[in-house]
Predict the structure of M23 family metallopeptidase.
Amino acid sequence: MSIRKFAAVLGRFLWLVFIVQATAGFFVDLPYNYWLGWLPAVAAIGLRLLPGRKARQQIVSDPPEPVEVEAPVTGRWSALNSPADKVPSHGTHSLGQTYAIDITAEGDESGKDARPGFSWLWPVARRNRAYPAFGAPLLAVADATVVHAEDGQRDHLSRTSLLGLLYFFFVEAAVRGAGPVRRVVGNHVVLDLGDGTHAMYAHVRRGSLAVRVGDRVRVGQAIGQCGNSGNTTEPHVHFQLMDGPDIDTARGVPFRWRGVGVPANREVFTVAPEGAPAASKSLTR
């Protein structure tokens, strides 16, 4: 096991210890000073900051050239947490997320099948079928080999209300972050594109993968469906390129989608199906 892999596993274990003892403290008197209970959390944060610090600084100051691939979806989508706006796009270099992007389907321009907005009070949660992204085909961005594929985790309800977000940030995200990485990315598939570049699709729909490890896929081939598994608030596609197949130790690689580029946050873009006119993007924000 590499040092980076060990640090990642140990960090999650320390977070789990912190959560368990913090929960236990509500019910019993712990046999040590209250402030000592924060040591596992402090140690976990330190482990995240130390490994690869020099490499992370180099990524930001001197990023490699983007790898151009096809878009992983077709239809009308909008971008969230985009590397076009900030790097690292998700606020962390961990799990190969430096240049990751989240995208969600918006329905057609007429407003039909529009994506539900945020609700302050009601409904507290929505079923996944309410979102046009749920069940949308995920496409291979290049000719590739499948090196990881799993789709056994459930798709949960949305977390797009005030109560839902409070539960997500203060309970669910903390618990998932302390567990194995698969609990964060949910169902996911990793493709080896060659030349040391790997593509990872996260939050895949349960039971939707049409590929397994060792399969060769062609660019544009449907490999699964967009879902709402793992650490998510609503159905969406999390896509990233990495320099290795292990999410725990891989570093992010910048990308460009052919005909689209890198959509900025809240930018709406449309990708035409194969054989239709070229992909395009709108500057709607």
Remarks:
- Residues 238 and 262 are 14 Å apart (CA to CA).
- The two ends are 45 Å apart (CA to CA).
